[in-house]
């Protein structure tokens, strides 16, 4: 069975929707999480706050989970590496365990 | 009576002994040792002390007994107890001598005088304590990360299974209706890949084309973000369901000019606000479809009544009634341009491009807890889509309807032009000024003074001409007005 006669030949090709022209259609979560992750890693490194570094790790994981396939893996990896390095540096400088805020 | 008193006294002596003993052992000695054999210890104590202690005990016991036991005469009791106690006192009360009590009282004073130097307890830093327990926050964090990763893997796999279950169910119907099923746009030739296009861990695309009437059909399986733990937790508060969105792009000649939508009231209200075409052409609120036999949950938004009449034929009503719980919205529009674009004031100079489109949004049953089997229940909806494509091709407005539709479109365009009139004027003005400035600069840059003078004169003449023209126009308008 095939389509009835009269169909256009060759059939129309798939064109990915142009999301650059309409940014409202895109989900902003991975970009926000990426940025947040970087901010927290910098805070963790500069201010030597362990909890900042841990939150940065979480942010980079969340950004990865929400990312689109067209997203650059290099950016993802760099954000992830930065957050891991923030955690490691905080512990090297101050091996004491993290104290809870309460 | 006397015998009764003796019996009570006998009972009370061991009780008071035990109380006194507990006082002595307050500092934490094991009391358990002394439950039954309380008095074994005191058997070896010498007789000398024994004589003194009974009196002391008697007096203390007297106090207790006077307080607890109601006796007729105290003197009488005292005598009785004296007799009774001396016998027992010998055997049981040796340790409670004065010396022992004195020593006991003095001991705290002695200990206080000795301990003048305070004891400082140094806090061992936690990381030197060599215990993993002090790192409990870190362990919690790592556990959280592991849980996130586990959820990512499980969610990703579930979405994948659901997508493939959907595709397997619908493959046959799609392949019988479309020449090209599955295309990612990258290959040189138009060959069916026969596979879904994975855009995300939760969005899958499928492009089908090669059918009469329509240019192509894009199916988007918009699953819930099961791979993101945050989203999973958020969904526990606010349940949502997976959606299947189908966008059919029609050929220009295959669809007449109308805008029509049917769906749940909530969805239509939202679409009316968001979608460019629905907001411009369907200004009324969503109406109930009860007139056509539709369930109460569904409402209709239409450009004109004729379109609704034409669209609501028996088969369509059958589809809508039977699958009302799975339908979120159905939109047929010749002016489809997507959601309203939020642009700045100065940039909106022309209308967005429109395409003749049929847009279907279906909810997957299960409200989040879907299983691959639920995908089979969506198959009739695909049949509805195919039917709608043919229907849209067949349905034509009559003369009146066409006139109304054309008028509506002209009206919308005019409104748009009015809105942008100011912007367009400003744009034209700025262009003119730009030209003048460029000319002036040219004149200034001209080195030859003769040429400069001539150019200046030419520019002046042009200005004068323009002014004359304007004046003429004003005169004409005045004359006309008169």
Automatic annotation (TrEMBL), chain A:
GO terms for biological process: protein insertion into ER membrane. Residues 1-12 have a biased composition (Low complexity). It holds the Pfam family ASTER. InterPro entries: ASTER. One of its GO terms (cellular component) is endoplasmic reticulum membrane. The keyword DNA-binding does not apply. One of its GO terms (molecular function) is protein folding chaperone. Residues 1-26 are annotated as: Disordered. The chain crosses the membrane at residues 35-64. Its main location: membrane. It is found in: Membrane. Keywords: Membrane, Transmembrane, Transmembrane helix. The keyword Transmembrane helix applies. Belongs to the Asterix family. This is PAT complex subunit Asterix. It comes from Dicaeum eximium.
UniProtKB/TrEMBL annotation, chain B:
Residues 60-103 have a biased composition (Acidic residues). It is a single-pass type I membrane protein. Pfam families: CCDC47. Residues 44-117, 422-482 are annotated as: Disordered. GO terms for cellular component: rough endoplasmic reticulum membrane. Residues 1-20 form the signal peptide. Residues 104-117, 429-471 have a biased composition (Basic and acidic residues). GO terms for biological process: endoplasmic reticulum calcium ion homeostasis. One of its GO terms (molecular function) is calcium ion binding. It is found in: Rough endoplasmic reticulum membrane. Residues 472-482 have a biased composition (Basic residues). Keywords: Membrane, Signal, Transmembrane, Transmembrane helix. InterPro entries: CCDC47. Belongs to the CCDC47 family. This is PAT complex subunit CCDC47. It comes from Dicaeum eximium. The lineage of its organism: Eukaryota, Metazoa, Chordata, Craniata, Vertebrata.
